[in-house]
C-alpha cells in the first residue's frame, strides 16, 4: 500500500481507496506477484520509484524533498534497469525528458547523480553475482540480452506483434476493468483539479509504451511497470465521479457503474485464476513422474524437459534431490543405497537434439511432441492443459475434441485427484447453480487438450512381466 499512500497525497483519500479496489481486482499483477520473473522484481523497484515521483508532484516546488523525490525515482529505475530489465532504460529516458521539459530539473544536481550512482551500484551488484553463477567473467546479463535481442535483431524470432499490440491488447488486459480506461482516466483528464498530475503520470508512461512498440516482439510483461501509474489516474477519475454521486442522476448512475465494474472485475479475476491453474501441465507431469511412475529397482534416472514443459510449470523447485548433492551429503548419509536420485536436462541446441546418442542416455522425456524424440520410446502418461473456452447455448452439451474433463482419476479408486479435479468440481458446482437458474442455459465450457507426454526409454527400461 506504499503507492496508495502517494495516491492519497496527490489525489485524496477517496482516490486512494479506489486505487486499492482497482489494483486488487486486476488479475495479472496480483497473480504474477509471487512469480520469480525479472519483470516482477523490476516492478517492485519501479512502483517505489513512481511513488517517489507522485509524492514529489504533490509537493510545492519550494519544498526541499521535491528534487530528492525526482532523484530517487530516476535512481531506483536505473538500478532496476541495470540489474533486472533493460527496457526500463526507456522509462528512465521518458521520465527524465518530461521532468526536464516541464519541471526544469537540474542536469548536474539530479539527472547525472541519479544516473551515475544507479548505474554504478547496479553494475557492482549484477556483474560479480551473475558472473559467479554463470561462470563467465565479466558478465552483465541485461546488456547481453539487450545486445542479442535489440541490436542484433533476434527479438523477432520469439514472435512478432503489430505496433498497436500494447495499446489495443496488452493494456486492456492488464487493466482488466474497461471502465478504468474508457471512463475514469478520461474524467481525470477533463477535470481541472486532477488534470495536471494525471498528465504528469500519463505522458511519460505512455511515451515509454509508444517507444517500446517499435520493437517487433511484444509481451504484456514488458510494460507491466506502468500499470500502477495508470491505475492511480483511473482512481482519481473514479473518486471525482463518486464524490458527486448525490448531485445528479448521471453521476449517481456512473458511480454505480464504476462500483459494479469493480465487483465484476473481482469475479472475472477469480474465474481467470481458476482457469490459469490449468496452464501448468509441465509441472503436473514432473510431479506425476516423481510419484506415480513405477520405477522398479532403478535408483538413478535422467530426465529431459522440452521447451513447452519448461514453459508450463517445470522449475527447479519441483526437482527431486533426495540423493547426495555435495561431498558432505556423501560423508554424512547413512542410507544412500536406498535413495532415488534424478538428473535433469533442458538442452535446446537444435543440432544436439538430432543426435540419437544424445537421447539414448535418458530414462524419461517430458515432451509436447513424441515424434521429435529419437529412439524407442513409449508414452506412459499424458498431462492435459487449458485448451480454450467456448460459450454453450441453452440445451447445448459440452464436449470439444480433442478434450477431456478437467480432472484426473486414480486408477485404483476411480476418484478424481489433483488440483485440476478441484477446479473441475468447483466449476461443475457453479454450472449447476448458475447456468439454468440465472444464465438461462448459457455457460462457458473449459476445454482441456493433451499437452505434455511422459515418454519412457524402452531400451533402458526393464522388461515388463505379464
Automatic annotation (TrEMBL):
BP GO annotations: protein N-linked glycosylation
InterPro entries: GPI_mannosylTrfase
Organism: Lophiotrema nucula
Pfam families assigned: Glyco_transf_22
EC supergroup of this enzyme: transferase
EC nos: 2.4.1.-
Name the UniProt record assigns to this protein: Mannosyltransferase
Record's keyword annotation contains DNA damage: no
Single GO molecular function: dol-P-Man:Man(7)GlcNAc(2)-PP-Dol alpha-1,6-mannosyltransferase activity
Pathway where it operates: Protein modification; protein glycosylation
Membrane topology recorded in Swiss-Prot or TrEMBL: Multi-pass membrane protein
Intracellular or extracellular location(s): Endoplasmic reticulum membrane
GO terms for cellular component: endoplasmic reticulum membrane
Family to which this protein belongs: Belongs to the glycosyltransferase 22 family.
Record flagged with keyword Lyase: no
